[in-house]
Amino acid sequence: MHEVLIVGAGIAGCCAALSLARSGCCVTVVERQPRWAFQSSGIFVYGNGLAQFRELGVMEELTAAGFVVPEGRNSYLQADGSPITTTRYPSPAPGIPAILGIKRAEMHRVLSARLERLGVPVRLGTTVQALDQPEPGRVQVRLSDDSTRSFDLVIGADGIRSGVRALLWPQVQPAYSGFGVWRSVHRRPPGLVDKIMLMAPGKRLGIMPISADRLYLFGTLPESRHARFDPADWPRTMHERFAGFGGPARPFLEQLTGADDAEVLYTAVEEIVMPLPWHQGRVVLIGDAAHASTPFMGQGGAMAVQDAVVLGRLLAGGPVDTALRTFGELRAPVCRFVQDVSRRVGESGAQAEAHEANLRSLVEGGQRAVDGFYAELARLDPAAAAERPTPP
Ligand SMILES: Cc1cc2nc3c(=O)[nH]c(=O)nc-3n(C[C@H](O)[C@H](O)[C@H](O)COP(=O)(O)OP(=O)(O)OC[C@H]3O[C@@H](n4cnc5c(N)ncnc54)[C@H](O)[C@@H]3O)c2cc1C
């Protein structure tokens, strides 16, 4: 039985704890935040990520807490609400939805409850201050409460600003993508059940159901590296940025400046592009710490849970050092593919002058592009290869 420390209780850390605990490891999780509190708003999880959540035994609870989009439908509209086309995301296997929307806080409620049931200790308000590997096969860790403990393996699952990465790979830094994302949460009218993308020159605004009575709005556009917005002004600024959008988005944009608390959130999007190896001795990085992506393919969460499942399988099946090397070799091409496609999608959407050409290629080849993306993900990912996407 390996003694494993997981740093960070986000999607990657919680899922790694579930995956490794099942593989018989003795897992401890430390999380910097003093209580379970995650930036609100929604997240969507596509079928390839849901397949991994099913493997961890939590997919049903997640789908019950979120909203499954019927037939994986994604409706593209002009900024005024007139229709362009509809595509469908593939389901990877019978019984696995093509796309789930869920509040982030709900996802973490499900994951943390499962950790508690498994008896995995999570030490909140705790982080790592120093890592030392004085002998092969052991990592000495000094925690923020000044205690020192030794582990067979340390997993840095502490996100884009990873403290573990900063200790061992200080040269790897987040790179600003040139994009800002604005998000807000609203009451969902019962009839609004599709994922909707409204397309304007240089800007996109999405609507995604995330529960029986909530949806979230997400708007992407280029923002200057130096842009700073006072959080008190976020609702007004989001309203102003997307004022040109109408159709189904109009009532939600209007609510931004009203009394409703729309949980508005601004994020300046950064990426981590890190060469292999993703481990040094017995310390390995997973999730955003190793490969944070721009959000245009909505795949960061799916990549984090796939990392967790693949690492758990490899650790259960052979020596730790081989498992860590193989982990990076298997996962890096998949994560790099997602990063590259996502960046390209963001960049082409940001070019106002390419708007008409983008709409034409969406109508002519939108479904082909979706199917091609998921087919390539399945081809690259040996873990998912057993469950090839079925056509919608
Ligand atoms: C605007 C935006 C929209 C997105 N939308 C989607 C989407 O719809 N679908 C999708 O799949 N992905 C989406 N993503 C990506 C997704 O959010 C991330 O890929 C995913 O959350 C990564 O999980 P993680 O656990 O690796 O990192 P995180 O979620 O960042 O979790 C890291 C955890 O570690 C903790 N931590 C940090 N530092 C320390 C430390 N030093 N010590 C201890 N703990 C620490 C943090 O508090 C946190 O709990 C989006 C990203 C952005 C920016």
From TrEMBL:
Gene3D superfamilies: FAD/NAD(P)-binding domain
Name this polypeptide is given: FAD-dependent oxidoreductase
Domain FAD-binding residues, every copy: 3-316
InterPro entries per UniProt: FAD-bd, FAD-dep_Monooxygenase_BioMet, FAD/NAD-bd_sf
Keywords: Monooxygenase, Oxidoreductase
SUPFAM superfamilies: FAD/NAD(P)-binding domain
GO MF annotations, alphabetized: FAD binding; monooxygenase activity
Signal peptide boundaries: none
